[in-house]
Amino acid sequence: GQNIDQPTEMTATEGAIVQINCTYQTSGFNGLFWYQQHAGEAPTFLSYNVLDGLEEKGRFSSFLSRSKGYSYLLLKELQMKDSASYLCAVSDSNYQLIWGAGTKLIIKP
Amino acid sequence: DVKVTQSSRYLVKRTGEKVFLECVQDMDHENMFWYRQDPGLGLRLIYFSYDVKMKEKGDIPEGYSVSREKKERFSLILESASTNQTSMYLCASSLGDRDLAEQYFGPGTRLTVT
Hints:
The complex is a heterodimer.
Chain A: E1 3-5, E2 9-13, E3 18-25, E4 32-37, E5 44-49, E6 53-57, E7 60-65, E8 70-75, E9 84-91, E10 97-99, E11 103-108
Parallel strand pairs in A: 2-11
Antiparallel strand pairs in A: 1-3, 3-8, 4-5, 4-9, 6-7, 7-8, 9-10, 9-11
Chain B: E1 4-6, E2 10-13, E3 19-25, E4 31-37, E5 44-49, E6 56-57, E7 64-70, E8 73-78, E9 87-94, E10 104-105, E11 109-113
Parallel strand pairs in B: 2-11
Antiparallel strand pairs in B: 1-3, 3-8, 4-5, 4-9, 5-6, 7-8, 9-10, 9-11
């Protein structure tokens, strides 16, 4: 079956760095997405990786290793507004998105 | 600015009622999706559509149907609501080729079936 695994919850301190991991087993691979979802709101797009390596976008970076079925989202200089759930999703061989359950990130002052 | 709207943020219905959830996007996107989101589970795809009048089943279509009569509107119908359909329902749209396109989400409808 298809499976996306990510930690349920993580806690970090304001100003610090946090890495949220995502491992996947899917039938085919056509890219990996990261979304941010604040409580009670819609998910919003953060990043997309289809080739191995690191994609940097401001304070957020996303890494992909296709051979390991692994990605991480790196958040630097954490701010209180970064408290949210972070969703990992993989586009499979049919270009359908398979979603992880999300990682709830709690930022403490 | 990209906009996906859903007809209701909160809805309470009784078991057996027919429920309509409406989604409208103003971005001229070809693709539209309906998901449900439950605690501890990832988003699960109910139905999707790549064009007007087209629909395809997702992972959990049982108990649901959809309608796409116009490009901008995608409706989800619960034929006879049941308590296990209590959930957050999210509509999304994306542009053009179905691959590689990021999805834009509406604010969600929290449906409670009593």
